[in-house]
Fold Probable transcriptional regulatory protein DS834_00345.
Amino acid sequence: MSGHSKWHNIQGRKNAQDAKRGKIFQKLSREIYMAAKNGGPDPSGNPNLRMVMDKAHANNMPKTNIDRALKKAEGNSDEHYDEITYEGYAPGGVAVFVEALTDNKNRTASSVRVAFTRNGGSLGATGSVAYMFNRKGYIVIDRTTTDADEDQMLLDVMDAGGEDLQTSAEAYEIYTDAKQFAQVRDALEKAGYKLADAELTMIPENTTPVPEDKKEQFDNLVEALEDDDDVQNVYTAASEE
C-alpha cells in the first residue's frame, strides 16, 4: 500500500459527487436497508449497519432518509437485493473491480457490460482481477482536527491495531486488516480522534498509469459505472495523480 493515497482523489471528486447527491442517498438507503435486514436495526450490535450509517452521515444524508430505510427493513417489505461483483479492464489495461447491489441481475449485468464496451474497456470473468486487490479498512483523520504529530499518530494507530499509516499535509490515512477495521475505528474514536472517513475498501497491490490518450475514455468508463443506480462501488488500479 505504500505510496497509494486515496484521500486526495476522494477530495478531488467531492464537487462532482455533490451534484449527484440524490443518487448517492438512494444507494446508501439500499445499503442501510440490506445491512439492517441481515443484521438487525441496532447499529451498536450490527457493525455493518454502523459502518454504512457512518458513511451516510459523512455524506450529509438526512436523518429522515436513514430512518425511512431502517423502518422499511423492520417492516414486512419483501424487497431484496443481491450483492454481485464485476471485473474487467479499463482502457490502458487498468484493472477495475465493481460492487453492485441489485434486484435485477440481468439488468445490472447488461448495464455494466455496456459501460465497459462503450468506453474502450472489456468485462472479464469472475476472478480475472479480484486477486489484484486486497480488502482493507480505511480511516482518514483530517489534520486540522487534531494536534497529534506524526509520531503520536503512529503510536496511537499501532496501539489501536492498525497496519499502515500514510501522512500528507492534509490528512492521516490509516489502513487496517478488514477483520480489525471496527476495532481500530472504535479505538481511535475513543482516543479522541474525529474521523473524516471510515470504510471498508479494495486496495490494489500494484497500480497502472493511465496512458494520456486513454484518460478521457478511462474517466468516462468510471463515471458511467458510478452513475449506474445498481453500482455501489468502483475500484481501479489506476495510479493516483
In short: The domain at 6-74 is CATH 1.10.10.200 (Arc Repressor Mutant, subunit A).
